[in-house]
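quick one before i forget lol
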Amino acid sequence: MADRIAIKLEEKGANGLTREQALTDLRTTLEWLGEDVQYINSEVDPLVEMCTITKAFDNSKVIVANKIKGYPGVRMISNLYSRKERVNRFHGVEDFRDIKYQLLKQVSNPIPPRIIDVAPVQEEILIPGKDFNHIHEIIPVATHTFNDGGQIFGAGSHLFMGEPWVPGGGSQISMYRMSFREGQKYASINMVPGGAGDVICSHHPGKKVPCTVNICPPVGPELVSVSTMNPVIFPGQTDKLGFAGAIQGFPVDVVKAKTVDAYTIANAEWSLEGYVLEGERVWETEEAERMGKQGVALLHPEWARSMGHAYRTPRAFQLTAVTRRKKNPIVYTPHFGAFWYEAPFMCASVYELCERMAPGFVKDVASWLGLTLWGGLVIQVKKRRRSDEGMQRNLLTAIMGLYRGMRLVVVVDEDIDPWQPEDVMWAIQSRASAQKDYIVYNEYGRGQAFQPSELKIGNISVSDGGMGIDATAPLGVQVYERSKYPVDEMDFSKWFTKDEIKELKNMQDPYFRWLGETGHG
């Protein structure tokens, strides 16, 4: 088992609240987490400092900066989802690997949102041109490095609700980056090509699509916002707030927006109200506009862990109002590091795809930080009969073709832990043939711009192929059988005390500890 992947859930948190009570809003969640939150009371600059603190202490405590330079009374938060154990608590699941199975049940059993009349997020209403001139005056928009192309807003969850925008009158929520440049009439808004938001807006060319951008909503809707259940695998899944309700265990409260015909998440910290202007093109940075070239000027770090680049977006955002909580509103700090918030959703989608193609064949789907989630996956299978042989290649073909930018997918046997990178590497070097088990897929198909190794034709990313590795052993061939020591039959208390066993295990690296517990060679 990979280190720190499972925990024991407590009935109540630090503030005596149950999980459902704690997930009402971000503030109760922070109280519930107790000492798992690090508060900074010294001044922090949103330009470079906040994101650098976040990176330096990624995969540790939640960080809340109480004093933001130039923004009295405003706070910033980061690292909320940076540890698997904390994500387990948010989902109410003890083992991180099991979250995907729960998500597959919840996505089919949504709890619809509830409309209320009065909401904390609307305690203050600020109108552009009247209460402020530029959004950077009231909201700290972070920069990540000294090489960033500008202040790029990536802290909000964009919510679309009801007909005619969302088919069937449901809801769609996703997080997109926006650039509010000084002197620009509209902000840029960059949606994932082919994603739900892109599909919604592209169906209304030349129209003004009303939406709200929710900063720091409760954990349930934010998890859905920053994650994805592939629409090809889950067609027609348009009740995203219902999905969020199922995750948190109760309805997500929404309230009518003040200036547009849309809804806001009632317990968010802030809301930006406005319209997506389909077909209104806007450059993301001054340098990109000056160059007149897309995908060249630097932007900020991306999920692929290299520097992203600025584009001319095919749509814009018109801001009509900002609403917020009155007392110390919190702003989310986007960063690109630990992705444990998104991994269960990605793994759930791929597991469902595999289960439909070959029921019972796939045992687990895993991802690691080095695979950057959308860049790679590991699939664990169990070959039960001769007819299963070769099905791993069918799965590789489907996964590599479905996910643009996928660079590496490895299939391993059930005796390999897909969450242990060293064990997967052992499987590759011992069970995969360089001549017949390394397969290049999707060469010259559409790629993903955020992957730096993609080919470029003009401004379009074209995949130079992703690699699928079949690291499974042929069924029934004894030479591949893994050695195994009888550790489960040994009573080590004959030779060591409990404290000595604990001390010895604590000294072991995670992979050695796992090998010692399983007895695998």
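fyi Residues 95-328 form a domain with the Pnp Oxidase; Chain A fold (CATH 2.30.110).
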